[in-house]
Amino acid sequence: MRPTRIEISASALRNNIALFRRIAPGTVLIAVVKANAYGHGMELVARTIEPLVDMFGVAFVEEGAALRVAGITKPILVLMTPTVSDAETIVAERLDVVACSLDVMQQIDRVARSRAQRIGAHVYVDTGMHRDGILPEEVPAFVEACAQLDGIELVGICTHFARSDERDCTMTTEQNRRFARVLDLLQAKGYRFPLVHAANTGAALQHPATHYSALRIGIGLYGIAPGEVYAPQLQPVLRLRTAVTAVRRIQAGEPASYGTYYHAPVPTTIATIPIGYGDGFSRILTGQAECLIGGKCYPIVGAICMDECLVDVGNDPVAIGDEVVLIGSQGTQAITASQIAQRMGTIPYEVTTLLHHRIERQLVE
To answer: Which member of 124, 191, 222, 258 is catalytic?
Structure first.
């Protein structure tokens, strides 16, 4: 069996959840597990933390249905705008939805009433990101229309911040001001929502005024601080490891891997490891990636292949079967998803989300 594994730390998950509980005591914690829990394994993570959180957030209806199949019984909120064709599944799987399309809400209402059910809806207010949601001036009429639907229960209202991961809080403050004005206007009309949520990880860590009655925590759940946010209390949850499968000596000037981009500057030992871009370890990292073997950092050399990489271990006594870590710690050394993201010119969200489902996820303490 291939030795490549992703280890998911249960203790790190507990630590990170406890941090957000301390930051905003008494709030509802919505754990966002979309995109395979940001690459960590949606079903595995959800089953592990279900007793510790109040609700789950997913991007799409299919993800919510998969969680139900996995045995998750806590409320699940679909965060992307559903379609009319999603109504049957939404009702069958008892999923909450964001509300920003009256046509969709009317279809969900029809299906829900036919089954004597009510579906929870969270009014999604577009306060400035302009991706999804209802514009502030259109919210009152939209809420009034949804309130007439017997199969819909208006249980929440929310918005999403565009720049909460930055030290400059100007945009977040303005978005929150617009959101608060909508809340005040709706309250004056007699509408109150049990769940009011705006804060993602960045806002939860930096902007207490955005906490309201619930937090939506995604990347922070997995121990990664977004953007410019400093949060040393977070503990990385994911460790990507494999093992050496071959070792060979090559002479100075000899090439290694596709394209022969790399030529050994001196006689050296090349170790083969069974992971590549087919696993989500991006080929963009060619010539930039490193790994840990025996607590020491080594360069990954030559082109990253679909299923394998090559490591220049010099004259060190590396052997077949030795553990190799590509993300996470080994001994006193560590390689983080954020460090890899910098080399790829992207964000750590993408680094972990790219990790393919063909890599087995294992829960460790």
So the answer is: 258
258 is an active site residue: yes
* E strand residue ranges, 28-116: 28-32, 55-58, 76-78, 96-99
Contact 135, 118 (CB under 8 A): no
| Direct distance between the N- and C-terminal alpha carbons of the chain, in angstroms, rounded to an integer | 23
Residues 6+ apart with CB under 8 A from 234: 15, 16, 19, 220, 223, 224, 225
Q: Are 41 and 238 in contact (CB under 8 A)?
A: no
Q: What is the pTM of this model?
A: 0.97
Domain with CATH 2.40.37.10 in the chain: 238-364
**CATH 3.40.50.300 for the 10-222 domain, yes or no:** no
Considering just the CA atoms, what is the radius of gyration of the chain in Å? Answer: 24
Give 333's contacts (C-beta < 8 A, 6+ positions apart): 292, 295, 296, 297
Q: Which CATH superfamily is domain 238-364 in?
A: Lyase, Ornithine Decarboxylase; Chain A, domain 1 (2.40.37.10)
The 10s digit of each residue's pLDDT in 170-229 is 999 999 999 999 999 999 999 999 999 999 999 999 999 999 999 999 999 999 999 999
Q: Which listed residue (34, 124, 277, 298) is catalytic? A: 34
Active site residue 74: no
**Could you report the per-residue pLDDT of 10-31, keeping only the tens digit for each?**
999 999 999 999 999 999 999 9
Q: State how far the Cα of 155 lies from the Cα of 188, in Å rounded to an integer.
A: 17
Average of per-residue pLDDT across 284-296: 98
Specify the domain boundaries for CATH 3.20.20.10 within the chain. 10-222
Q: How far is it, in rounded angstroms, from Cα 16 to Cα 11? A: 9
